[in-house]
Amino acid sequence: MNIQENVSLKPYNTFGLEATASYFVEVSTVDELKNVLQNPAFREEEKLFLGGGSNLLLTKNYEGLVVKIALKGKEKIFEDENHVLIQAGAGEIWHQFVMFCVENHYAGIENLSLIPGTVGAAPMQNIGAYGVEIKDIFHELQALNLETLEVETFTLADCQFGYRESVFKHTLKGKYVIVSVTFRLNKVPTFKTAYGDIQKTLAEMNVTELSIKAISDAVIAIRKSKLPDPVEIGNSGSFFKNPEIPLTQYKNLIESFPTLPSYPINETTVKVPAGWLIEQAGWKGFRDGQIGVHARQALVLVNYGGGNGNEIKKLAEKVQQTVLDKFGIKLNPEVNYI
């Protein structure tokens, strides 16, 4: 292991923001991670555990130790006639893992194609897209207890998954580092095509026979058409969560905004698309210097190059205030501010 000093974090966050870590180290095994945590020189340092940097807004230099989690590997640990359990290291690139499953005909994960980030970060906020969430394919995960330095196993119930939520964002925040995740995938697929433009895109692609690859290809095409590639334009994907509001509030809103879309959560709650709210509030395509709101998807805040995290944070706050004033709905960020 090589602990470096004064390292630029620009290559390690998808916004492409310039910030410096006082100390930086990359770990590829659990033992290396333990050694870093036991190192007397860094025991008292603040620590930031970094995956793909796709859910991060760096607003300042990090005065502590950044630990890049690079634990790799994929292993089939169980199989029967209906299911397979695949364990993946936390440092595996999420989209590459999805492609591995698609290529091996392991179903259930295809709707989550092309989401940026790593396997280890995925359960932290229960990532989801096009009708599927991590909790739907999750079996268990292993995480290092930062106090005892023991690896513990967390079941589906232990993780307390919610909409872009888990126990690791709340009561266990800062207490564990996820080192591997095991997924329960299907040998016989159950296709989910009702959400978003999947059916429309499949038709445009002249798909006559459904397959997990066809759905994956459709999701990839949709995401590429709406979301900027972070390599070309700095961004973190969806910046805000889609808000969940009471059905009574939604009924009041559609009197003034009859085209407001909604997705039922239960008998009393609906989810409304944050991107629609932001667009209706006039932000889509907005640009201020080197930052802005993406022209094709208002849910995405962008860094065109040379912007800084505080500028993006202030833009996000303006967007939140405008939406609150217009609709009475508070938007909450998906990204973590550092």
Automatic annotation (TrEMBL):
A Pfam entry, by short name? FAD_binding_4
Task: For this UniProt record, give its keywords in alphabetical order, as a comma-separated list.
Answer: Cell cycle, Cell division, Cell shape, Cell wall biogenesis/degradation, Cytoplasm, FAD, Flavoprotein, NADP, Oxidoreductase, Peptidoglycan synthesis
Pathway the protein takes part in: Cell wall biogenesis; peptidoglycan biosynthesis
Ranges for the FAD-binding PCMH-type domain?
Answer: 15-188
Please list every transmembrane segment annotated in the UniProt record, as residue ranges.
none
Q: What does this protein do?
A: Cell wall formation.
> Which residues catalyse the reaction?
R164, S238, E334
State the reactions this protein catalyses: UDP-N-acetyl-alpha-D-muramate + NADP(+) = UDP-N-acetyl-3-O-(1-carboxyvinyl)-alpha-D-glucosamine + NADPH + H(+)
Where is this protein localized, as stated in its record?
A: Cytoplasm
Where is this protein chiefly located?
cytoplasm
Alphabetized GO MF terms? UDP-N-acetylmuramate dehydrogenase activity
Give the protein's cofactors: FAD
Task: Identify the EC number(s).
Answer: 1.3.1.98
Gene name tied to this protein:
murB
Q: Which family does it belong to?
A: Belongs to the MurB family.
Query: What protein does this entry describe?
Result: UDP-N-acetylenolpyruvoylglucosamine reductase
- Which InterPro entries does the entry mention? FAD-bd_PCMH (IPR016166), FAD-bd_PCMH-like_sf (IPR036318), FAD-bd_PCMH_sub1 (IPR016167), FAD-bd_PCMH_sub2 (IPR016169), MurB (IPR003170), MurB_C (IPR011601), MurB_C_sf (IPR036635), Oxid_FAD_bind_N (IPR006094)
